[in-house]
Amino acid sequence: MAKNRFSSGDGPSQRQLRVGELIRRTLSDVLIRGEVHDPDLNRISITVGEVRPSADLKVATVYVAPLGGTLGGETAEAMLAALRRHTGELRHHVAKAMTLKYAPDLRFRLDETFDRLDETRRMFSDETVQRDIAQRDDDEDEDDLG
User: Fold this and answer.
1) Whether the Cβ atoms of residue 83 and residue 55 lie closer than 8 Å to each other
2) Same domain for 94 and 30?
3) Residue 54 belongs to what domain range?
4) Are the beta carbons of 66 and 47 closer than 8 angstroms?
5) 85, burial (CB in 10 Å: exposed 0-12, middle 13-18, buried 19+)
6) In a domain, 7, yes or no
7) Based on the structure, what is the number of domains in the chain?
8) Is the pLDDT of residue 71 over 50?
9) CA Rg, the chain, in Å?
């Protein structure tokens, strides 16, 4: 049976990864240089963590976070609102930098990677987890000797 060319498969294709990285770099450069004329957007330092294009490259989900800020505050909401107001202009900048037939629609989402990392660190610092890890290491050492 023929494979559907737009199927999700085992993960993103090389083309999706390349396009996503190009969009990420372009958006980062545009935001660093302040090419979007909006004081609300330019006063916030924004980190573009990842861009995930859809299989057909017509939609790109952009994961952003305020640099040094927390996601739970007003800064994150103000940042998302400003980015969404200027989606068309940002899409235009992306289209100029790319040679695709269609410029992808940009969808902005909060990047929660750093929050998940903090939660993982907190879990590993828990004494119950530390005890379990130490016990497992001791069990593996005994297995190697025996």
Assistant:
1) no
2) yes
3) 14-110
4) yes
5) middle
6) no
7) 2
8) no
9) 21
